[in-house]
Amino acid sequence: MDRFKLQSDWAAEFSRAGAYIRACLDRSAPLPLDVTLSARFEQYSGAHCCSVLDDLLNSGEPRHIQRCRSLSWWNKKSTSKDVSVITTLLPPSLERLEYLFLKDFVFENDSLIRFPQCPQLKEVHLVNHLNGVYPKYFLDRDHTHVEKLTYTCSTDWIDYDIPYIQWFYGIRILVLEDAARYSSSARLFLEGAENTFVAHLRCLETLKLIGSIPLEIMQRLHAPILRRVEIATGDSAPKSHALDAVPLELLQSVTEMRISLCLLDNETPDPQHLRRVICGAPSLAFLFGTFGIGELLAGEGWFRERNIVCHCL
């Protein structure tokens, strides 16, 4: 909506926006669509918003939205009403959808909200918490198809994070990202019985950690066939990473590790943390690391004795 600089009472502007969207949809048919929705309905008339979205969601035969390959849905400052309006307009099924991105949602336990069935869904990216509700409000029929889940937090980690991760128990790749400006290791809120949840990820092969992930979250991940772990600093400042917070129980079956730490020029990785994760992975055969890590480990006798193949990134 912001693209067209719409005003709540300017019917002509809404008409012009609708004409532009119709032209784009008609000219792109029948190619796949990558759709981004970023609407704050509280600024506009609901009828006007629905008229603009209707060309995407209800026009054409089959509907244009059925060409959707990826859907990115941004709801900055959204309300449950906003989400409910759009989900009401969506069809019962999105047959070609493979990638879903949801950011800053507020569901407020609205039992009417349901996301369409997505039989081809392969990858999901969730940013921030969906207001503490359980994931039954979306993807309740398609979670077994998802192969990769990215879970990003730029606010506070909470106990409902684990049930969301557990919902996608068939994933092979899990990315946990702390995108907060400062380290979130002290910003974990645990409430009630949810503290007992454990994410049993029996198919998980790759775990990627970006930034500082709270130990309490890491301790409740169960991945018996985990093969690859990647640890990296995030874009947040100051630079932080999860090297010192990985439970050794997660590393027992790991054969490959990738450590990318973007430290300051005068900083070096902590040898104690490096030794902890490497020695905690008894099956480790390959280590990929930045130059400083390789240089540091080359002088360690215990590392040479392990016969681990080390590659510099």
Residue windows where pLDDT falls under 50 for at least 5 positions: none
Helix content: 10-25%
Mean pLDDT: 80
The end-to-end span amounts to 42 Å
Kindly state the number of beta strands: 15
Computed CA radius of gyration, to the nearest angstrom:
23 Å
Largest sheet: 11 strands, parallel
Q: Order of SSEs, N→C?
A: HEHEHEEEEHEEEEHEEEHEHHE
Rough shape? elongated
Class of secondary structure makeup = alpha/beta
Query: Spatial order of the strands in the main sheet?
Result: 1-2-3-4-5-7-10-12-13-14-15
> Count the helices. How many?
8
Write the layout of secondary structure elements.
Elements: H1 11-28, E1 33-38, H2 46-57, E2 68-74, H3 80-89, E3 99-103, E4 123-127, E5 148-153, E6 157-158, H4 161-167, E7 173-178, E8 188-189, E9 199-200, E10 206-210, H5 215-218, E11 221-222, E12 228-232, E13 256-260, H6 271-279, E14 286-289, H7 291-298, H8 301-305, E15 309-312
Parallel strand pairs: 1-2, 2-3, 3-4, 4-5, 5-7, 6-8, 7-10, 9-11, 10-12, 12-13, 13-14, 14-15
Helix pairs in contact: 1-2
Protein architecture, described:
There is one protein chain. With 313 residues, the chain is α/β, with parallel strands linked by helices. It has a domain of 151 residues. The protein has an eleven-stranded parallel β-sheet with strand order 1-2-3-4-5-7-10-12-13-14-15. A two-stranded parallel sheet has the order 6-8. A two-stranded parallel ribbon has the order 9-11. Helix 3 links the parallel strand 2 and strand 3. Helix 1 packs parallel to helix 2. The protein is elongated.
